[in-house]
Amino acid sequence: MLAFVQRQTPFTMPALAAFTLAHLAGLLVLQQQSELPEVYTRLHDWLGPWGFWILCALALTFAIGRAGRVWYWLALWGLLFGHAQAGLQAAHIIDRRAPLQCHKQTVEGQFELQARSLRPDQVEHWLLKHVTQSGSHTPCLKPGSLLQLRVDKATGASPNAGDMLTLRVQVKALRSTLQLQGFDVHAHWFAQELAALGALKAVLEHSPAQWPTPLQLSERVRWQVGTWLMNALLDHPEQALMLALVIGDQGLIDPEDRMVYNRTGVAHLVAISGLHITLFAGLAGWGCKRLWRNSARLCLWCPAPRAGAIGGLVFAVLYAMVAGWGIPAQRTVFMMMALCWSMQHNTRLQAWDVFFLALGICLMTHPWAPMDAGFWLSFVAVGALVFGTHGRMVFLQPRLPWLTDALRAQWVVTIALLLPCAMLFNQQSIISPLANALSIPWMSFISTPLALLGSLIRSESLVTWSAHSLALQRLWLEPMANLPWATAIVHQQPAWIYASAGLGCLLLLAPGGLQLRRMGVVLLCLLGWPAPRPEHGDFWISAMDIGQGTALAIQTRHHLLVYDTGPALNPRADSGLRVVLPWLHSHGYSAPDALWLSHQDADHAGGAPFLMRHARPGMLASPMASDHPLLAQAKHLGIAQRNCHSMPPWTWDGVQFTPLSNAPPPHAGKAAYTTNNQSCILKISNGQHTALLAGDIEQSAEAQLLARHGAQALKADILLVPHHGSKTSSS
After folding, report:
1. What is the pLDDT of residues 13-49, one digit of tens each?
2. Which run of H or E residues covers position 415?
3. In angstroms, rounded to a whole number, what is the distance separating the alpha carbons of residues 35 and 709?
4. The predicted structure's pLDDT at residue 5
5. Cα–Cα distance between 617 and 633 in angstroms, integer?
6. 161 and 113 in contact (C-beta within 8 Å)?
7. Phi and psi angles of residue 587, each rounded to the nearest 5 degrees, phi first
8. Model confidence over 327-374: pLDDT tens digits?
9. 128-166 pLDDT, tens per residue?
């Protein structure tokens, strides 16, 4: 690709940009399809795993040899190549996946350990490459497939990357809830090319690797640094953030802390970012150049500036590999490779050439990168900086140029990331410019250098001081995050609004003399286009996929009621965090008007604590006793509380809401007092349609409800079937 750039000068940018952008468009077109075209499945069966590399060779041969400088031919070829590349890769991933009939089957096989990562509660995740399988008649795992294994640290096994392991594992097919909002775990698994998940049952044999590869060595260093940090910062509140800063592992960061980083817009600083790699690679290059100059013989063999550039690049590659080789790290390394190559060959590359080279190499080596939010945030921010600053002439030199440049860069990045944040996270941090102005220099020049230097020389005092500096940073981040106006909710919009907002961003970043520049503000304001709502007298019911349990949203013209919040298996598998809150934001709600918890069982009320903290409802209705912890939390947050069995009917926007009392009679049996049978029951009607939400009542409570209210009062078009799937299920 670099040779292609050299041949195309001075027409490099149009040709390279056309091919790269069309390549990205081809990938996106295929990734948005609901089904894989059959042609790619047949091509994969015919060409095998080498089909992708054959396609790459044909694409580069055509692009370099035949397309020449005609950019529109390159664009067409890039579109076709991107679509075919993603199609063949998808066919390969699907072919390696464990079938559903293998779910929870125990198999024995030989695996090569690829990587280890830390997780809460003394748990590790192992990434394994399957080699052979034995002891099973079902081919659950094909050779070469990737398996993510959950390992309890109590097992005592401690292999290194590259080691061969004979294991007995329980295979778990890739199944999870289907979410239209929030984090898409299915896309994450697909981008990681996983064939299955699993749980370790036994380690039967362990064979250490004799000659580990450079990638395996970097993984070993990464694991050793991570475990040393864990021990050095034992019980320190910033242990998880330090782990993310040094080795890029964010698996231990608490969800509440993530909310603080997202609301203040500093999430890009939490892991290894391109800014950190560039800064420290520059320092390493400067030090290498200074040392190189002390030897005349070395300078005659290679000039000191070139030696410094190579030294900085080597440091950047090593740093990025130890940091986990994330998308921002890849982008930075590829851009530095292009600059270093141009210096070695006395060729001057334009800023856009470097940008599109990095983008093209990233897409070529990792076609599923566009599924990662970090891809868009990283490349959009850097592309905006090039567009907003490259080639601009300054006629009046400011008195403090460094401050002016910093403010200009902050303005450019803030405007550029408005659209990606709206599309990816359904929110935009208003406090972000101020928070970044404080946190970027603090973390870049204090926290991160101390963390890296302390980890390099194994100094517990340095990493402890770095952790203390991160704790000190909370003094301004947490108050900023708690401001009610810290973030603005941006609900999902149609494609034409996103396209118009993107044009608005380009206009605002255009040179100041452009007369249409003010139109950018108008186009950006389209992101606030009102979300669709029911007409007066109508209501919408949305059932969220939370697995076992219930989570519903009932919308009227101007109100929202959330009925149950699903389970919370652990702080990271919380339906309030994963499903309900993203649903609210994507539909333009900051909080519900009322939260109804049918009863206190974990699969119905588990997500309520998180939801009440981050989307405080106007009222909480439940059948719980006054000493229940949820009611104590609601009282602390200032949320009005009502007992659902004694609430009168009310009307919202022409829709009647009728609570149906199901309190047990004085001489009822023991079964009537179970939490299921005390569920809140809500009838919703607009005169034309009726819905009955019955919580988890059982057969005995259904009979009592029928006797108390009569069949006509319970008649409904839609019934939320209560407590299904057990011996006492709904009748």
Report:
1. 577 888 889 999 999 999 888 888 888 888 888 877 6
2. helix 401-416
3. 49
4. 45
5. 12
6. yes
7. -105, 10
8. 888 888 898 888 888 877 777 778 888 899 899 999 988 888 898 888
9. 999 875 554 457 888 888 999 988 876 667 889 889 999
Q: How big is the chain by its Cα radius of gyration, in Å? A: 29
Compute CA distances 654 → 533, 535, 553, 650, 717, whole Å: 14, 10, 17, 10, 18
Specify the residue for token string 């919370």: 568
| 43/282 Cα distance (integer angstroms) | 45
> Whole-angstrom Cα distance, residue 480 to residue 432?
9
Tokens, residue 628: 């229940």
pTM recorded for the entire structure:
0.87
Give residue 666's pLDDT. 57
Q: How far apart are CA 286 and CA 312, in angstroms?
A: 8
What is the model's pLDDT at position 2?
A: 45
Chain CA centroid to CA 5, Å: 34
- Report yes or no: 448 and 439 within 8 Å, Cβ to Cβ: no
Cβ atoms within 10 Å of 587's Cβ, excluding its own = 20
Residue type, 682: L
The pLDDT, as a whole number, for residue 141 is 85
For the record, the structure tokens of 655 come out as: 């829709």
| Beta bridge mates, 596 | 563, 621
Helix (H, G, I), strand (E, B) or coil at 545: coil
Classify burial at 308, counting beta carbons within 10 Å of its beta carbon; exposed 0-12, middle 13-18, buried 19 or more: buried
Give the residues of the chain that fall short of pLDDT 50. 1-11, 67, 136-137
- Sheet with 718-720: list strands edge to edge: 650-652, 655-660, 681-685, 690-693, 718-720
CA 359 to chain centre: 20
Beta bridge partners of 198: 149, 171
Which two three-digit tokens encode residue 52? 């992708």
Q: What gap in Å lies between CA 174 and CA 156, rounded to an integer?
A: 27
Q: How far apart are CA 157 and CA 636, in angstroms?
A: 45
The answer to whether the beta carbons of residues 530 and 492 sit under 8 Å apart is: no
For residue 651, list its beta bridge partners.
656
Measured CA to CA, the distance from residue 94 to residue 87 in angstroms comes to 11
The pLDDT value recorded for residue 10 is 38
Q: Hey, which residues does 614 pair with through a beta bridge?
A: none
Can you read off the two tokens belonging to residue 129?
């490459």
Beta pairing class for 690-693 and 718-720: parallel
8 Å CB contact between 470 and 442? no
If you ran DSSP here, which 8-state letter would residue 644 be given?
G
Q: How far is Cα 695 from Cα 709, in angstroms, rounded to an integer?
A: 17
Distance of CA 423 to the CA centre of its chain: 13
Which pLDDT score is estimated for 9? 41
